[in-house]
Design brief:
With about 190 residues, the protein is of the alpha+beta class. It has a domain of about 130 residues. The protein contains three helices and six strands; from the N terminus they run αββββββαα. β5 and β6 form a beta hairpin.
């Protein structure tokens, strides 16, 4: 009898304790997620709205375009959403583009005449200090005013758009994001 009791204490009891700990931890994580998920979603939506207003300051408010979204390269470069200014001043297009560290998210403001008003990288996993140089305001400003890009390849624009040395993949991802956003503008026939 003592062997069975000893075996229970030695083998089964620790397993049961660990299982109970796992269940309690899982429940607590699910509970915390349930509480924080709506707050995170609200903060994300607020940040996106603020970014839209920064990229297209002439706009008064934005509405989802409901248009068909451009997929430039399946799973690599595609429009995630497109919001049109309610006053007809332009649109802000959110594009996912494959970069060095994975997918990056860029928001591109385009005015009613089809000119880029601003570019902002809102999410990325590129190498800090190297790939992130392609996300810097100084680099992104060179797209402002462009109504079209002759190519989706940043190297084809050596005279007016300079890629970041040492961050050619990240520079290319940003360039393709802007290119895709302009394609979305064209596909919608501009702002109506």
């Amino acid at each position: 009898m003592e062997n069975k009791n000893s075996a229970f204490k030695e083998f089964i009891s620790p397993i049961l304790v660990l299982v109970v700990i796992c269940f309690v931890t899982t429940f607590l994580l699910a509970f915390v997620y349930g509480v924080t998920a709506p707050i995170i979603a609200e903060n994300t939506a607020k940040a996106a709205s603020e970014a839209r207003m920064t990229l297209l300051p002439a706009a008064d408010n934005f509405t989802d375009s409901g248009a068909d979204l451009v997929v430039y390269e399946e799973g690599k470069v595609y429009v995630e959403d497109c919001y049109v200014a309610d006053n007809g001043e332009g649109m802000v297009v959110t594009v996912k583009s494959n970069s060095y560290g994975g997918m990056l998210t860029a928001m591109v403001g385009i005015d009613k005449d089809g000119a880029v008003t601003g570019v902002q990288v809102t999410e990325h996993a590129d190498t800090p200090g190297v790939g992130t140089k392609a996300h810097a305001e100084g680099h992104l400003k060179q797209y402002v005013g462009h109504t079209e890009l002759a190519s989706d390849n940043v190297k084809a624009h050596a005279d007016d758009i300079v890629e970041v040395t040492g961050a050619s993949v990240s520079s290319g991802a940003v360039h393709k994001a802007v290119y895709c956003a302009l394609e979305q503008f064209k596909a919608m026939g501009g702002v109506k």
